[in-house]
Design brief:
Strand 4 (113-115) and strand 5 (122-124) form a beta hairpin. Strands 14, 15, 16, 17, 18, 19, 20, 21, 22, 23, 24 and 25 form a twelve-stranded mixed β-sheet that branches. Strands 1, 2, 3, 6, 7, 8, 9, 10, 11, 12 and 13 form an eleven-stranded mixed β-sheet that branches. The chain has a two-stranded antiparallel ribbon with strand order 4-5. The chain is α+β, with helices and mostly antiparallel strands.
Length: 826
């Protein structure tokens, strides 16, 4: 009996729900204009939220694409000037040996390779990796195997693992590729495996992987020198990050005691790999999520106002239904069903808009988004949209439903369905004020970001990016290539580049490149006490340059001279320093003629010039503790032991008379004529390099501006709708006022005053909210305060103008009321 009763109630509930849905469909179909506006308004709010959530879900919420990825930890060295410094390989081997918190630990470094064979050379992107690299990540080759420990050693036979994409492109997915040779940088490597083509690491997809332990370079096994290697590990089950950090701190102290010359003041930093990858964009997304949340609330308030206005015409319907026995709860459920039906329809359209919006975000600024390739409309996003639609329906439908069903039958019938409107007017005015307040918050955020971008554009980067271009050049070097041959190749390259029409200056470079790559070296000033070890020495950012670097980059010479062609391998070593170096280490002195010692190069260099400081870390404020001192070292004076590092590849900067990309065709042809095995890659104009430095801020500005414009439009629609409703409700009152002598301008001011009051109330609330909320985006700002009065005043002024304009049309309609017609209707 109990089961039958329960089943009966369920069937009754389903039948009631179906009746509510059918009735809701009929009522919405009878008002196509209202329905279309409501659905479109909700679609904008829900679509914007869904598009941004799909990005947040792919970038921040989803785990990394590795098994048990929460156990993966990035491992950095921490040294003076660097919170996340590259590691030293010998230190890594000690970490690997002594740590008990990690199940495994791996090292890697970027390394590109020239693929030699018949015809032209090809440049391949790659990583040098330790044998535990793929096992630590939990990645299994689809063919062959990973590296063995005995292969990750000096003197072992050269072996290579191919990416799935390169395997398909170059070898046609041949299943018998394992065991075959491939010529990289003039040496024969045996292919031992192929990894899945979907594999990426820190958003990078490489062509080839070789054992890092086979790299036969003296600097790599010098504890004093970092050659841009990095490390990560997988924690053992049950080990927490703080526990592992405590153990690594102890290991760092032991190494500092064992090798004080290299490891004094050196520590270790552990960061969750996911946090390491996406940490920089978290503040950006928090700001944008708040923005789209405001946009959805504005859309809900707008639709709530539409429903309130629509309920005026349905007051008689609700009164009759109440008289026939319908309970208030039953009518509220019916109206909520209509609201949820509107929201679900808006959500469906919003989902379609979100597909387009997500693609637009990724296509417009992919460089600002880590894990951009992992963003998709998956089941989580679909569930989010459904939940958001239902929640939106409840939010904007509840208040109008409760108000609409509180009817007085006699009063409603006597007023021919007009009903009392005092409470409804106040509720509508509240909704409008809230809309205006949230729109003002978004406008203030967008205004602050616009001013931030304007301030960044005015910053002098210390070089002239216009008409400058940079690229990497692979050299057809082999293990037997001598330093003299490398220098001869570079001099010939310079001569051929300068002969190209339109090329004004050229320089080969390595080490640091402005806003692209950074390298530092310890030094000590001649005439001052020599520090006990490298760790006690100050660090300088070093640029390896040729004579044409100053002209190619547009750097300002302030004193002395720049590096010239006469500063070659057989002449005394010289350097240029920047003015930050001069102010810090030669305060009140002329540094030209002084000498500094570079212990890792084992040279003493004379300072021959002072140049302007280059904004190495970006246009805005430098990171805390970032190295400021810079020096420029002649490329041809690089010590013999360092020349093998540059024999395979260098970077180049060119300055041209016109568009720098226009000469790249001739540059490529010239390189091909020099040696068809040499390859140009990573081509970037310096304008693009500078733009990349503020790409995240530009993304924030574009999205905030788009959301703010939508919010402003919705707020104006809300003001227009409420004022139009008020004019309709007060037609008789306006007629009486005009019959009693009121002038048209009095009526105009009356109506405009109603709208202005709502807008002013909303603006006051919005300013107060902005003062509190814009502090959340303070780290995104540059050159402007989060409480910038110019931005606040400008936004408030524009918002009030737009609000008054939205009131003007219904106000004009009000002054055209015919008093006699109004009184006859009364």
């Amino acid at each position: 009996m109990a089961l039958s009763t329960k089943r009966f109630r369920m069937e009754q509930g389903m039948n009631s729900l179906l009746l509510d849905l059918r009735y809701a469909f009929r009522m919405l179909a009878r008002s196509p204009g209202f329905t279309a506006i409501a659905i479109l308004t909700l679609a904008l709010g829900i679509g914007a939220n869904t598009a941004l959530f799909s990005v947040v879900n792919g970038v921040l919420l989803n785990p990394l694409a590795y098994p048990r990825s929460s156990q993966l930890v990035a491992i950095y060295a921490k040294s003076p000037g660097y919170d996340k410094a590259p590691i030293v390989y010998l230190n890594f081997l000690d970490w690997q040996r002594d740590s008990r918190s990690f199940a495994s630990m791996a090292a890697y470094r970027n390394e590109d390779y020239s693929l030699f064979g018949a015809g032209e050379g090809e440049r391949l992107s790659g990583y040098m990796i330790s044998a535990d690299f793929f096992p630590t990540l939990g990645v299994t080759p689809i063919l062959g195997r990973s590296f063995r420990r005995d292969e990750d050693q000096l003197g072992a036979a050269p072996v290579v693992i191919l990416s799935g994409g390169f395997w398909k492109r170059k070898f046609g997915s041949s299943p018998d590729i394992v065991g075959k040779p491939i010529i990289l940088n003039g040496a024969a490597y045996t292919i031992v495996g192929v990894i899945p083509d979907s594999f990426s690491f820190y958003g990078n997809m490489r062509d080839v992987y070789t054992p890092i332990g086979q790299w036969n370079d003296p600097s790599f096994r010098d504890r004093r020198i970092s050659v841009s290697a990095h490390s990560f590990g997988r924690l053992k089950e049950g080990v927490t990050l703080p526990q592992a950090q405590a153990e690594m701190d102890e290991i760092a102290r032991n190494l500092a005691a064992a090798y004080p010359e290299a490891n004094k003041d050196m520590s270790i930093t552990l960061v969750s790999m996911k946090e390491d990858l996406v940490g920089n964009v978290q503040p950006l997304f928090f700001v944008l999520l708040a923005a789209v949340g405001f946009l959805l609330l504005i859309a809900c308030a707008n639709v709530a106002n539409l429903l309130l206005a629509r309920s005026v015409g349905r007051s008689r319907e609700f009164a009759i239904r109440s008289a026939l026995g319908a309970s208030q709860g039953r009518m509220v459920r019916q109206l909520l069903t209509e609201s949820i039906l509107l929201a679900v329809s808006g959500g469906a359209l919003g989902l379609a808009l979100a597909f387009w919006g997500t693609k637009a975000i990724l296509k417009g600024l992919p460089a600002a988004l880590p894990r951009a390739a992992e963003v998709s409309m998956d089941s989580t996003v679909l569930l989010f949209t459904v939940a958001l639609s239902l929640l939106a329906g409840m939010i904007f439908g509840l208040a109008p439903a409760l108000k609409a069903t509180r009817v007085n039958l006699q009063e409603t019938m006597n007023q021919s369905g007009r009903g009392s409107s005092g409470f409804r007017q106040r509720l509508q005015g509240t909704f409008v004020a809230v809309e205006v307040a949230m729109a003002l918050v978004l406008l203030v955020g967008a205004g602050l970001m616009v001013r931030t971008l304007g301030a960044l554009w005015r910053v002098n980067p210390g070089f002239n990016p216009s008409h400058a271009i940079t690229f990497n050049l692979s050299l057809a070097a082999t293990p037997t290539t001598s330093s003299a041959e490398t220098r001869a190749r570079l001099r010939n390259f310079d001569d051929r580049m300068r002969a190209i029409p339109g090329v004004q200056a050229v320089s080969v470079t390595l080490g640091s490149r402005p806003m692209i790559h950074d390298s530092s070296l310890p030094f000590w000033i001649e005439g001052e006490p020599k520090p006990a070890n490298d760790s006690d020495m100050p660090q300088g950012m070093f640029f390896l340059v040729e004579a044409g670097f100053q002209q190619a980059m547009g750097i300002t010479l302030k004193r002395g001279r720049f590096v010239t062609a006469q500063d070659h391998e057989n002449s005394p070593v010289v350097i240029d320093i920047d003015d930050s170096f001069a102010r810090t280490y030669f305060p009140g002195q002329d540094p030209v003629g002084r000498h500094i010692n570079l212990t890792q190069f084992n040279v003493q260099a004379e300072i021959v010039g002072v140049i302007g400081h280059v904004k190495q870390w970006g246009l805005d404020a430098d990171p805390k503790g970032a190295i400021q001192a810079q020096f420029f070292y002649p490329f041809m004076q690089l010590p013999e032991k360092m020349m093998p590092l540059v024999a395979k590849a260098v970077a180049v900067v060119l300055r041209t008379q016109g568009d720098p990309t226009a000469v790249m065709g001739q540059v490529r042809e010239t390189v091909k004529e020099i040696d068809p095995r040499e390859v140009i890659y990573n081509v970037q104009t310096m304008d693009d390099v500078v733009a990349t430095s503020y790409a995240a801020r530009r993304l924030t500005m574009i999205l905030l501006t788009a959301f703010a414009v939508l919010a402003l439009a919705l707020a104006c629609v809300g003001i227009y709708g409420v004022i139009s409703y008020l004019v309709g409700q007060r037609t008789q009152e306006i007629g009486i006022r005009m019959a009693l002598g009121a002038q048209r301008r009095d009526i105009l001011y009356l109506v405009l005053g109603e709208g202005t009051k709502m807008a002013l109330a909303g603006a006051a609330i919005g300013i107060a909210a902005s003062l509190a909320l814009t502090r959340l985006m303070a780290k995104q700002l540059f050159g402007v305060s989060a409480h910038d009065p110019v931005t606040y005043a400008s936004v408030a002024f524009v918002l009030m103008l737009v609000a008054i304009a939205a009131c003007y049309i219904p106000a004009r309609r009000a002054v055209r009321v015919d008093p006699m017609t109004s009184l006859r209707c009364e």
